[in-house]
Amino acid sequence: MAFRGWPAEALDFYDGLEADNSKTYWTANKAVYDDKVRAPMAELLAELEAEFGPAKIFRPYRDVRFSADRSPYKTSCAASFERGGYLQLTAAGLAAGAGAYMMDSPRLAKYRQAVADDSSGVPLTSIAADLEAQGTSVTSHEQLKSVPRGFPRDHPRGICCGTRG
């Protein structure tokens, strides 16, 4: 079956789950999750497989063993692709991402140098600003609180020189 988007019931499901993250709500609405949330996600992933490779939908249950937040269910349906990329549906809408997560030290150093260098860092800043101006949020999973070692504290792209490493 071809992906035709998520119905409004999918967003309503997550609105309800955010308001009542309980087994009672989940059990009463499991069919809505299966039919209106998970099934369309599977259809979309099937359509994108040729370009991005197989994808895996994350489980809807949270691991609360070591968490202060004891809510049992995730308030999103998310998937990651074998060749890179991420999709997530929440009550707020759809998010997509790509990039590198947890780079090894040599790759992180190369990335930070590229951001710091004016010949590549300035165009990167411009691309990010253009995307933001068009309404696309450009973020990272984790952000530095200070400039990484080896870069001047007043560097114009100092905090952007990379993720934690």
Compact overview of the structure:
By secondary structure, this protein is an alpha+beta fold. It is 42% helix and 11% strand. The protein has helices spanning 8-19, 23-52, 105-116, 118-133; strands spanning 55-57, 77-81, 86-90, 93-97.
How would you characterize this protein structure?
The relative contact order is 0.10. The protein is elongated and about 55 Å long. It has a four-stranded antiparallel β-sheet with strand order 1-2-3-4. The protein has helices spanning 8-19, 23-52, 105-116, 118-133; strands at 55-57, 77-81, 86-90, 93-97. The chain contains four helices and four strands, in the order ααββββαα. α1 packs across α2. It has 165 residues and is an alpha+beta fold. β2 and β3 form a beta hairpin.
